[in-house]
Write a structure and sequence with these properties.
glycosyltransferase, eight-stranded mixed beta sheet, 416 residues, alpha/beta, 13 helices
Length: 416
C-alpha cells in the first residue's frame, strides 16, 4: 500500500465517520420533530416573569423598524417585558428611526442606548454587556436586528424555561425570510433547516445538548451575572456562552415552535464574510475550551467540543486531502489503488446527502417541493464546497488575528 493509499484511506474513514454521525443526528432530530409536532408547549405557570429583550444593532436602518415593531407585537403581557436596543456606533439613520419608534409607542418599555466609537463599536458581545447594565428582567432574551419573531415565540421560550429549573436557556428556531430571493438564499434555507436545526434537534434528543444560535433564545439573568457577561473576545458569542452554561450544570433546550424569521445574505461576498466570521469565532471557542476535554466536570460538553473539533479540523483536512489526491491521481502525479473505491464512496455520499437532506425538509410546512431535489444536488457540488474555503479562510484569519493580537470587531452583515 502506497503513502497515497494510506492518506486516501484515512481521509475516507474520517469523512464517512463524520457523515454517519450527521446521519444519526438527522434521524434523531426527525424523531424529535415528530414527537413534539402534536405536543403542546407547557403552559406558563403563575405570574409571567419580567423579560428583557436585547437587540444589538450596528447600521441596521434598513431592518430595525420592522424588527422593533415585531417585538412590540409579541403575545406576551406588555407590562412584563422591556426592549433594549443597543444602537452601537451606527453611522446610518438608525438613531432617527429608533427615536421615532419611541415617540410612536410612548407607553411601551422601549429603551435606546446610543453608543459612539469610544463607548461602543467593539462587537456584539460588548454591545450586549452595555445593554445588560440597564436590563431589569429576570430572564434575558436576545434577538438580532433583522429578526421578525412570530407572535408566540417569546411566550413559548418563557413557558419552557419556567417549567424546568434544570434549563439555563431555551432556544427557538430561525427561518429564512428571503429564501426565494435567489439561488444562494435557497441554499441557505436548506442549510438552516437541515444542518442547523435538524442537527440541533438530534443533539437534544440524544444528548440533551444544544448550542445557542445567537438569536431567538432566552436565558436566566443569574447566568449572565455569574459568568460576568459576554466574552468580548468571542465573535461567536453564542457558542462561547453555551459552553459556559453547561459548565454551570444547566441544560439548553431546543423548542422549534418558537420561530423567528431573519434576513440572510443575498450575495456571495456578504455570505462569505458572515460565514468566515462564524468559522473564526467557533475556532476561537474550540481552542479556548480544548482543556475542558480533560476535566471531569465538563463531561456533558465533551461531545460538542469533539464535534466542533472534528468539523473544523478533521473534516476540513480530510476533504481537502481526498480531493487533492483524486486530482493528482487523475493527472498521473500519484498512484492510488483505491481511487476507484473512493469515487464509489463519493457517489454514495452524494446520494445519502440528497436523500437525507430532502427528508429533513418535509418537517417544515411549505418545503415539501420536488424542486428542492435539484437544489440539494446543486448545493452539494457548489455551496458545500464553498464551505471548505470558508473554514480554511476562517482558520487563516484566526491565526492572523492571534499573531497580530487584534481585538474582535463588529463584522456587519449587509442588509437588503
Amino acid at each position: 500500500m502506497t503513502v497515497a493509499d494510506i492518506l486516501m484511506l484515512v481521509s475516507v474513514i474520517c469523512i464517512w465517520t463524520l457523515l454517519l454521525v450527521n446521519v444519526v443526528l438527522i434521524v434523531a432530530g426527525y424523531l424529535y420533530y415528530m414527537q413534539i409536532e402534536n405536543k403542546p408547549v407547557p403552559p406558563l405557570q403563575g405570574e409571567p416573569p419580567f423579560v428583557t429583550i436585547m437587540v444589538p444593532a450596528h447600521n441596521e436602518g434598513k431592518v430595525i423598524t420592522q424588527t422593533v415593531e415585531a417585538l412590540l407585537a409579541l403575545e406576551y403581557p406588555h407590562e412584563s417585558y422591556e426592549i433594549i436596543v443597543i444602537n452601537d456606533n451606527s453611522s446610518d439613520n438608525s438613531r432617527v428611526l429608533l427615536a421615532g419608534l419611541q415617540n410612536k409607542y410612548p407607553g411601551r418599555q422601549l429603551t435606546i442606548i446610543n453608543t459612539d466609537a469610544v463607548t461602543g463599536g467593539k462587537g456584539k458581545s460588548n454591545a450586549l454587556n452595555l445593554g445588560f447594565q440597564q436590563a431589569k428582567g429576570e430572564l434575558i432574551a436576545i434577538y438580532d436586528a433583522d429578526n421578525t419573531p412570530e407572535k408566540k415565540a417569546l411566550l413559548y421560550l418563557v413557558s419552557e424555561i419556567t417549567n424546568d429549573p434544570t434549563l439555563g436557556a431555551v432556544i427557538g428556531k430561525f427561518r429564512t425570510r428571503n429564501r426565494d430571493a435567489n439561488l444562494l438564499t435557497r441554499f441557505i434555507n436548506v442549510e438552516t433547516l437541515s444542518f442547523q436545526w435538524m442537527a440541533q434537534a438530534g443533539r437534544w434528543k440524544l444528548f440533551k445538548l444544544c448550542t445557542i444560535p445567537g438569536t431567538n433564545f432566552i436565558m436566566r439573568r443569574e447566568i449572565v451575572e455569574r459568568i460576568g457577561g459576554w466574552d468580548v473576545k468571542a465573535i461567536a458569542e453564542d457558542t462561547e456562552i453555551s459552553f459556559r452554561i453547561y459548565m454551570m450544570g444547566y441544560r439548553i433546550k431546543f423548542q422549534p415552535k418558537a420561530v423567528t424569521w431573519e434576513q440572510e445574505p443575498q450575495t456571495v461576498k456578504v455570505w462569505f464574510k458572515q460565514r468566515t466570521r462564524w468559522a473564526k469565532g467557533n475556532i476561537y471557542v474550540i481552542v479556548k475550551n480544548i482543556p475542558l476535554l480533560f476535566e471531569r466536570s465538563a463531561r456533558n460538553i465533551r461531545f460538542d467540543i469533539l464535534y466542533f473539533l472534528s468539523i473544523y479540523f478533521l473534516l476540513l483536512t480530510s476533504l481537502v486531502m481526498s480531493d487533492l489526491l483524486l486530482i493528482l491521481h487523475a493527472l498521473g502525479y500519484v498512484t492510488t489503488t483505491i481511487a476507484g473505491f473512493s469515487s464509489f464512496l463519493w457517489v454514495l455520499a452524494i446520494t445519502l446527502f440528497v436523500v437525507g437532506t430532502f427528508i429533513t425538509l418535509v418537517t417544515e410546512k411549505g418545503e415539501m417541493r420536488l424542486s428542492n431535489l435539484w437544489i440539494i444536488l446543486l448545493m452539494y457540488v457548489s455551496y458545500c464546497q464553498m464551505w471548505m474555503v470558508v473554514a480554511a479562510y476562517g482558520m487563516y484569519a484566526y491565526i492572523k488575528d492571534l499573531i497580530y493580537k487584534r481585538e474582535a470587531k463588529w463584522y456587519k452583515t449587509e442588509r437588503f
